[in-house]
Design goal:
This protein has 521 residues and is α+β, with helices and mostly antiparallel strands. GO terms for molecular function: kinase activity.
Length: 521
């Protein structure tokens, strides 16, 4: 009898489900896209039941695949998944979603964030490592639901993230059984004690969030139950298949690329481009107001990390391919863009892209996305390179913060979809003056989930040794000194342009949008 493990990654742009064997060899993988809705300016919503449906469909396809390969669905020993750490919805007594799913791309809580930050409280940084509230924090979404969503006010029982929602429904749990793992818990941003791994009564009282709405905190490998008969019929997996508590996508991606020791850096090049560095705990220099860094705990015990983000980093790439190039159904068009952009000189002929497609996330929240410096000589390839470089410029600032706090970043590991672009990896190496490494293991968070699943059912004694077996370097990119210097000079000019010269223009553009008719649902 073979031993198989099924893992899924419920991300912003898609859900991916994979099956790995006991040697961590990929047996099959299936993926389907998600849908993002934009009902109002600054609002971004998704649907938890759509996440569930997509996952179930992908599981069914994977089960059909393994049967065709001669495996028995009974060979699947456990199911483990990860999902978005900065996003929640409300559920009722049955455990069903009664609100939209709001994630980190949404900025509707901007006014409320300012209200919380005007309190100027020290408890946030002491207990969470995060000195200020942010529009991407689920704690702020929870406040919004409690104030504005009638259904939650009348029927709400718990707040849930997307991966726990999927796992909970696979196991047939009710609303009162809602859970979250100790790593994804820190995705709330506020409302918990990061070192004690528990909700903070004092913080929740300040936030006006009744603790009864908070899910119970579990370890990622805890078994929450078995697959129900109804889900067995839909997925093809045997009834009773163990279901794990799951984890956060960022946490699993970091582990999946070997980042489980202090001082290592990872670029999670997904929808929300994230630049992470592992630490032994809270570093006061990095937890200062104005740094715009988030502090979280990892999936494994005693692991912590900071991350800076460009919310639409990876999404900007998809937006350019789908909306500008009109290649929404051509996934390999990224390769064509990269090949052509590789011929464009450093600095993209003076063309600058600002990747703030859902607004700013600092003091200038009125930022918007735009191209600057275009001439008749420029084309798609120039614009594409400027999109890639724009995210690198923000990364340079984050890297400067890390280094100023004593974190010696000589190597950066790249993970997720963006890591497949050799052009982008070389740009990052040049801009950050650091070696950039990509591992052969393309599974990322999903294969990590399968290792956790094996650990949950005691098929492996430890997680890290199993993971180390498959971490082999695929490609290494070295910084080129002349490009590093040029990018540093360009960064100085770019910051002046954005922070000083463009500030009045952003305000005017914001006012123009306000007088235009609102987009209808």
């Amino acid at each position: 009898m073979s031993k198989l493990y099924l893992g899924f990654d419920a991300g912003t742009q898609s859900v991916k489900v994979s099956v790995y064997d006991e040697n961590l060899k990929s047996i099959t993988s299936q993926s389907l896209p998600t849908i993002l809705r934009y009902p109002h300016a600054g609002w971004v919503e998704m649907d938890l039941d759509e996440f569930l449906d997509i996952t179930v469909r992908c599981i069914k396809r994977c089960v059909d695949d393994i049967k065709a390969l001669g495996y028995d669905p009974k060979d699947v020993r456990a199911v483990m998944g990860d999902g978005i750490i900065c996003g929640i919805a409300g559920v009722n007594e049955e455990g069903d979603a009664i609100t939209p799913y709001i994630n980190y791309l949404d900025t509707r809580t901007d006014d409320d964030v300012r209200f919380i930050n005007d309190m100027n409280l020290d408890i946030w940084v002491k207990e969470t490592g995060n000195p200020e509230a942010c529009t991407m924090f689920p704690a702020m979404f929870a406040r919004w639901f409690l104030k504005n969503n009638t259904k939650f006010q009348q029927q709400g029982v718990k707040f849930m993230h997307n991966a726990p929602y999927i796992l909970s429904h696979l196991a047939g749990l009710k609303g009162k059984d809602a859970f979250i793992d100790w790593g994804a818990m820190s995705g709330w941003g506020l409302g918990y004690n990061v070192m004690k791994k528990e909700w903070s009564k004092e913080q929740l009282e300040i936030l006006g969030i009744n603790e009864k709405y908070m899910p119970r905190i579990l370890k990622p490998w805890d078994i929450i139950g078995g697959l129900t008969k109804a889900m067995s019929e839909k997925t093809g997996l045997p009834e009773g298949t163990p279901i794990c508590a799951g984890a956060g996508d960022t946490m699993q991606s970091m582990i999946g690329c070997g980042n489980y020791e202090a001082g290592k850096g990872v670029d999670v090049a997904g929808t929300c481009a994230m630049f992470c560095v592992s630490t032994k705990g809270i570093i006061p220099e990095l937890s200062k107001k104005g740094n715009n860094l988030i502090f979280n705990s990892g999936s494994l015990p005693d692991t912590y990390f900071y991350w800076g983000t460009i919310r639409t980093g990876g999404l900007a790439l998809r937006w350019f391919k789908d909306n500008v190039c009109h290649k929404a159904n051509d996934a390999v068009y990224y390769n064509d863009l990269n090949d052509r952009a590789a011929q464009v000189p450093v600095g993209s002929n003076g063309v600058l892209f600002l990747p703030y497609l859902t607004g700013g996330q600092d003091i200038n929240n009125k930022k918007c996305g735009c191209f600057l410096g275009l001439t008749l000589d420029d084309d798609q390839s120039v614009m594409w390179r400027s999109v890639l470089e724009s995210i690198g410029f923000d990364y340079m600032e984050i890297c400067d913060l890390y280094r100023s706090a004593g974190v010696d970043l000589q190597r950066l590991t790249v993970a997720e979809g963006g890591s497949r672009s050799s052009l982008w990896n070389q740009i990052k190496s040049d801009m950050l003056d650091a070696e950039v490494v990509r591992y052969k293991n393309a599974g990322g968070a999903v294969v990590t989930n399968c290792i956790f699943a094996a650990y949950a059912v005691k098929d492996v004694p430890e997680i890290i040794p199993e993971l180390s077996k498959i971490l082999q370097i695929d490609q290494s990119y070295q910084p080129r000194a002349e490009n590093t210097k040029l990018y540093r000079d360009l960064l100085n000019l770019q910051r002046k342009l954005i922070d000083v010269d463009m500030a009045p223009a952003f305000a005017t553009l914001w006012n123009m949008k306000k007088i235009l008719p609102q987009k209808q649902n």
